[in-house]
Write a structure and sequence with these properties.
CATH architecture of one domain: 3-Layer(aba) Sandwich
CATH class of one domain: Alpha Beta
Shape: elongated
Helix content: 55-70%
Number of helices: 22
Structural class: alpha/beta
CATH topology of one domain: Trna Endonuclease, Chain: A, domain 1
């Protein structure tokens, strides 16, 4: 009898456990369906409330964690969403219907990125590459994160893999082109940037870097077009304006360059930034070329206050320091071209020479003159070639060599070259053994002071 009672109890217990498991298996999906109904009704607060209760009873249920995490995302409670998604990662169980692995990993990667957990996000994208090897976006996302970690060669490999899967992926072309640009592989960079623009004409970053490449190759007209396009991207507006202004400067269109560079300075909040410094530098260059030296100095002084070693700014300020103490040098450097020629004629006359011919060159006046008097009545007056330069660049030997060749064409035996910016050692070495005199600002000051200039 006791044995029969024991058997009845065992059978009853088994039936009860079986019934409980059956109820759980029936009610579990039903509860999940009910949660999903609330999700579809946009009743996020209720979803969160009931999902938290269910997790308290069944903490390893990844489906409920997934639903709760998505509800937190809807409410923009991203930190709590990440807690739920981390729990799923630890449990490691996925449900193809209610908690599929690929969508989960995409979302947790985005959450990691939101909280700047780059390494964790990268792990997720590398897993996604394995799960969906024919999805180009996974390769691209991994490439971007490798680029952020400055692992550029690996980033290039992933961008190239992106393009193997999808040749029309404009972002991959752009990022690949940008990396090649930074590596100074200009041919490869140009190819990729042009491909990005062909696929997506509104890829303004590609326009910007393609413009820089074209500017460096002196294709200024094409560069201007791309900088104009890049202006449409708010984040590139300042840089594109600086590049546009400097391109006009290199074209010699100072009247167009000046307002662009002034606009860039106005747009730049940080006066110590490279954008501000370069804008002021080229603006100063423009003012120098239109002989508005005082305004040029104003720009260079502002640069010097922020970064004393910027490019050749210290040299420029040193070159023009005479403007504060010598009005004659100031006139030489700043007067209009017609008045500059008159000034040069006065200096030549002060050298006791008679002018035979005057030629106006860019930032230069060339005069051919002969001696005004000779103690020998019938002596032949030999012509001299005299050049007056007023440029900021130091005169190199190549310029002196070119003038030496010009002397031969003009059948001139002697030459004098004036320059306030000075001459290189090689220029002096070349002139030393030839009938060419090189005079810097000291000699020019002496002649200007001895002349009748008032």
């Amino acid at each position: 009898m006791p044995i029969i009672i024991l058997l009845i109890i065992l059978v009853g217990s088994t039936v009860i456990v079986f019934i409980l498991m059956l109820v759980k298996n029936i009610l579990g999906p039903r509860k999940i369906e009910q949660l999903l109904d609330l999700v579809n009704q946009n009743k996020t607060a209720l979803v969160i409330k009931y999902a938290k209760r269910l997790i308290a009873k069944d903490p390893r249920n990844t489906t409920i964690h997934f639903i709760l995490g998505n509800a937190y995302i809807t409410e923009k409670n991203y930190d709590l969403a990440l807690v739920e998604f981390r729990a799923i990662n630890l449990i490691g169980v996925f449900d193809p219907k209610y908690c599929p692995e690929v969508p989960f990993r995409k979302k947790i990667a985005e959450l990691f990125l939101r909280f700047e957990q780059i390494d964790e996000a990268l792990k997720e994208y590398l897993l996604l590459v394995q799960l969906e090897p024919f999805n180009p976006q996974h390769y691209f996302n991994a490439g971007k994160l490798f680029e952020e970690r400055h692992t550029n060669e690996t980033a290039i490999q992933y961008y190239e893999k992106t393009l193997e899967v999808d040749k029309q992926h404009s972002d991959a072309h752009f990022h690949l082109g940008h990396l090649y640009y930074r590596q100074k592989k200009m041919i490869e960079a140009r190819t990729e940037l042009e491909a990005a623009i062909k696929i997506d004409p509104e890829k303004y970053g590609a326009h910007f870097y393609l413009g820089k490449i074209l500017k460096d190759t002196h294709d200024f007209s094409s560069a201007l077009f791309h900088f104009e396009e890049a202006l449409k991207e708010p984040e590139l507006r300042i840089k594109a304006t600086v590049e546009k202004g400097s391109t006009y400067f290199f074209l010699g269109k100072f009247e167009k360059a000046i307002p662009e560079l002034q606009r860039a300075i106005t747009l730049t909040a940080d006066e110590s930034s490279n954008d501000s410094l370069y804008a002021r530098y080229y603006l100063g260059q423009c003012f120098e070329n239109v002989r508005d030296i005082e305004r040029a100095i104003e720009q260079w002084e502002k640069i010097y206050q922020k970064k004393p070693t910027f490019l050749d700014v210290p040299g420029k300020l040193s070159q023009y320091q005479e403007l504060r103490i010598d009005d004659k040098i100031k006139d030489y450097l700043t007067v209009k071209d017609a008045d500059f020629v008159k000034l040069c004629k006065i200096v030549v006359t002060a050298m006791n020479l008679q002018i035979r011919e005057i030629t106006e060159l860019v930032n230069c006046c060339q005069i051919i003159a002969v001696e005004a008097e000779s103690k020998w009545r019938n002596a032949r007056k030999l012509p001299r070639l005299i050049r007056f330069y007023r440029i900021s660049e130091i005169i190199k030997d190549a310029t002196v060599r070119q003038i030496s060749e010009e002397m031969k064409k003009l059948n001139v035996k002697r030459c004098v070259i004036f320059s306030t910016s000075g001459f290189t050692k090689l220029a002096y070495d070349f002139a030393e053994t030839r009938p060419i005199d090189l005079f810097g600002k000291e000699k020019l000051q002496e002649l200007l002071s001895a002349s009748e200039i008032k």
